[in-house]
Amino acid sequence: MLKIGILISGRGSNMQAILQAIKAGFLDAECTIVISNKADAKGLEVAKSFGSQTAVSTDEKQILGILQGHKVDLIILAGYMRIVGKILLDAFPNKILNIHPSLLPSFKGLNAQRQALKAGVKISGCTVHYVNEKLDDGKIIFQEPVPVLDHDTEASLSKRILEKEHVIYPKAIQLYSEGKV
Ligand code: GRF
Q1: Whole-angstrom Cα distance, residue 44 to residue 85?
Q2: Which of 34, 111, 116, 118 could bond to 47 as cystine, CB 3.0-4.6 Å?
Q3: Model-level pTM?
Q4: Mean pLDDT by 10 residues, the chain (181 residues)
Q5: Distance 100 CA to ligand 1 centre (A)
Q6: Residues ≥6 apart with Cβ < 8 Å to 11
């Protein structure tokens, strides 16, 4: 069975969706470790409530050691607010996934939903992609469109996109585990 390690920095709602999908039997994977670069990340408590092992580290070499110690096959970035460096990229080539709240390659980087509103697009969405050395740039695995409504605020659009994120991230990981991506 595919062993995943999830990296977070904050509330961890995507992580929660993935752990729920595993628990419900929708996703054939085992989460062997959740690592946060922030000791006060709310997601750490959520991970513990699912019985997941957790760790906190900001040092990429140490993070690699923890992931290897937990026999991780695939790294899942879920709101991990750090650029992944060479140490992890070299050790996990094409084995790191991320989710981004836009239809890449549009609106890379921070505040993607705000960027979409500013650009006036009528459709945005979310993307699961492989991670490479550039920000939000790797090969696209799965995308889901989300309408941008006339009365949308950054908060309302973010909420609508997040609901789709929670659906497509477990799906994309399942496709990966079946060797379909
Ligand atoms: C999500 O919008 C995700 O697309 C982006 O960061 C946010 C993380 O949210 N990469 P959460 O921590 O999963 O709730």
Answers
A1: 22
A2: 34
A3: 0.97
A4: 98 98 98 98 98 98 98 98 97 98 98 98 98 96 98 98 98 97 91
A5: 7
A6: 41, 42, 43, 46, 79
